[in-house]
Amino acid sequence: MIGVGQAAKRLGVILVFALVVVAAANLRAEQRPAAAHNTVSPDSCPRSTFRVVVDVGHTLDVPGALSARGVPEYAFNLQLARDAAQALRDAGFEQTALLITGTAPRRGLVERAVRANNMRANLFIAIHHDSVPDNLKQDWGYAGLKNQFNDDYPGYALFISNDNADPAASLQFGSALGHELESRGLRYTPHYTLALMGHRRRILVDAKNGVYRYDQLIVLRQTKMPAVLLEAGSIVNRQEELELGTVERRSLTSAAIVAAVEQFCAARSRPASTRAAAASAH
Ligand SMILES: [Zn+2]
Fold first, then answer.
1. What spacing in Å lies between the alpha carbon of 65 and ligand 1's midpoint?
2. Are 262 and 202 in contact (CB under 8 A)?
3. How far is CA 146 from CA 2, 4, 135, 143, 275, in A?
4. Which residues surround ligand 1, an ion (CB under 5 A)?
5. Residue 145 Cα, ligand 1 centroid: separation in angstroms?
6. pLDDT below 50 — which residues of the chain?
7. Rounded to the nearest 5°, which phi and psi values hold at 66?
8. How far is the CA of 185 from the centre of ligand 1 (A)?
């Protein structure tokens, strides 16, 4: 049960998110200047036609996990996804689409995949922020409210599905993104391999870059293009929640996404013979 003051506070938070969503919709409608990346060489990425779909995880009404300070995950997802999509457009990926879904799961999850498929996206990136199972949370008071936290498992995590239309390419992009995040000083969380995660336990398929397998995820298995889900960090971790709320952390993650997309796009644009040679060289 929540008190009137708490309810009013939550409502205020929800209204702020509603305004952010309206602002995001307006932003999408604006014409953006085309960036100057049109070099045509056999080995370069055709940025102006390579379409990335950046999916904002969860919905305004069903907003995902609650942070240690009581902010819904959706707010974090929307901010980071907007920044990442803008960074991609600024890098010349003009076709980048920010996917905001109002339909609740499960229908909403299927809808995301259908929309990405209809857009003929080249790459799908779902943006989320992590929490832990309820039994791993502890109580604490914040701003006069009873909240829950877990400080044990900071860090990002990446997920791919072997049921995706192109699991090899999904892993290729996931590994590239993990590498770019690591090279910017971020670390992935290894806790998904632990027994205490129960049915949320996952197989770590790239132990260097933090990519796990999560075959059942609808947005990854029903998309017809390579697809990756990024948990950008833990919002139930009291320290990391603060970092994830800063422009600096979002810029860091966005820059990693752009660098990984650039590499992935260039690799996909290479003639098949060159790609095979590069693969066998590893
Ligand atoms: Zn989520």
1. 7
2. no
3. 10, 14, 16, 8, 54
4. 57, 64, 128
5. 23
6. 1-5, 7-8, 11, 14-15, 17-40, 42
7. -100, 140
8. 23
Taking every pair of Cα atoms in the chain, the longest distance, rounded to a whole number of angstroms, is: 66
142 burial type by CB count under 10 A (0-12 exposed, 13-18 middle, 19+ buried): middle
Number of other residues whose CB lies within 10 A of the CB of residue 10? 14
Distance in Å, CA 219 to ligand 1 centroid: 12
pTM (predicted TM-score): 0.83
Cα 229 to middle of ligand 1, angstroms: 9
- Rounded distance, CA 33 to CA 36, Å? 9
Q: Is 154 in contact with 189 (CB distance < 8 Å)? A: yes
Query: What is the token pair recorded at 27?
Result: 């932003």
Name the residue type at position 213. Answer: R
User: Measured in angstroms, how far is the CA atom of residue 100 from the centroid of ligand 1?
Assistant: 14
* Spacing, Cα 270 to ligand 1 middle (Å): 34
Q: How far apart are CA 111 and CA 219, in angstroms?
A: 9
> Can you spell out the DSSP letters for 52-107?
EEEEE-S-SSS--PBPTTS-BHHHHHHHHHHHHHHHHHHTT-TT-EEE---SPTTH
Give 53 Cα–ligand 1 centroid separation in angstroms: 17
Supply the pLDDT for residue 19: 44
